[in-house]
Structure prediction request, 577 residues.
Amino acid sequence: MTITEDLQKLLDILPQDLQQKLENHPKRDNLVEVVLDLGRRPEARFPHAAEYLSETPVTQAQIDDCIQRVGNFGGDNRAGIEQTLHRISAIRNRSGKIIGLTCRVGRAVFGTIGMIRDLVETGKSILMLGRPGVGKTTALREIARVLADDLNKRVVIIDTSNEIAGDGDVAHPAIGRARRMQVSKPELQHQVMIEAVENHMPEVIVIDEIGTELEALAARTIAERGVQLVGTAHGNQIENLIKNPTLSDLVGGIQAVTLGDDEARRRGSQKTVLERKAPPTFEIAVEMLERQRWVVHECVADTVDTLLRGRQANPQTRTVDENGKVGIVRQLAVVNGGNGHLANVEESFLAAKPNGWRSSGQMVALPPLSLDRERPTGRSEFDRLLDESFNYSESIDFTSRKQAGPNGEDLPLHIYPYGVSRHQLEQVINVLSLPVILTKDLDSADAILALRSHVKNHAKLRQMAKARHVPIHVIKSSTIPQITRSLRRLLNIDDPELGDDRELQLLLHNGSDDEMDALEEARLAVEQIVIPKGQPVELLPRSSQVRKMQHELVEHYRLKSDSFGEEPNRRLRIYPA
Prediction:
């Protein structure tokens, strides 16, 4: 990795005493910016610290002297030093006089996009997100150079603040063969974007800081003309863009949709839901969490759809070590109450597992795993359990045993849920490591899992299933125990031993302290009194939602329970077998 910074040219505009101190500073190579505010001590900022350069406050004469050594300040209150990437930003008082300067070091870092070079070469539009100072503009500059020099594409940079290609009429060599169009006023950026496409026949447009609705609209227009877009936007994550009405069009836009009764039942959702309005302007999004750790959403459309349905996306996390080696890990979202634990799974393994299971049509049960009954502290036992299941899966001998679905289908089994909570289905599948894939396409389904009441009132579904020879498996209610037993029946898996740890973990999944206390109370009552002593137990009064969870837990132990009493003192009574 090569770094070009021309730091001396930035130091030359500073007052003489500050120049000397910074030239001999041990952290000089890591300097981020120098701040000069009238009446305050001058400050030097480094990546993880800041320090004062002098005990003498900055005077107006010193600020005026610095201003004379730099170029003119534009409408965005930014100026630069010709043939460098440094940026000088001004703070003005109410009358327009400059009373503060932020002198930011601009560095051209060659090799900084090794983490996403494969994505750049696909030709898809890429959106970079991240907090200020994380390196978005530096990455954008390097992407422009790689596209122009290494991939021989016609690249045009829309350089509103001369931050990408430097100040002056001659562009900085860090952008390679890419061309640069300057913007006279920041509010005209969207016009220059369209002008670039119409006049200069680019294959790639590079744009920094898309921040207005007109710029988002211009970006969509460019993308729909078949030009690759590489840009940055204000926002730390995709969720920020979804919630931003000005920029939401970059990820497809959001609209409220009213579903029909049948579709709402099938989804198990309300009738009015939020959905993506159009294809995203950018097909790939990169969240720059840190300089060496980026989160990559390979398909923005799928990520937005997943988030709008209230589920956790599973993007890649890419890191680079000191030797320049790139590591790719995928975050597999696992429902674990409100804690949102994520299991990190190597990307190569995730890519290989579906092919192996589908091609072989075989499944081997996981070995029995122990689970500490104590409430988890720190890294949860749930995470350990999931990690062990993935590690075990890698060593399965798929040739030693043959097993197929209930009608001879290859595994994983494709299930079409109807009226059953998809959230709970995914939870059961993930925690028990079941070879099941949920599908929205009835034609590709091996079986239908539906609520009894919905099937009873839906003759069309029965007719469609009969025509396609797809069996319908019904459950009385969408609860975790019933879903678990139904999936076990579908996969021809024997019922587990009483108190199976993984199934118990499914029930102890909700996040609030009140719910966890209630479930722990029910578990201790069953295991310490009802089962060993054969005595009924009454629990403390709880809300209807918490009582429902307690009923589910008791059902897991194959015991019966009733609710009795009047609100707010209604409570559970557990009976021995």
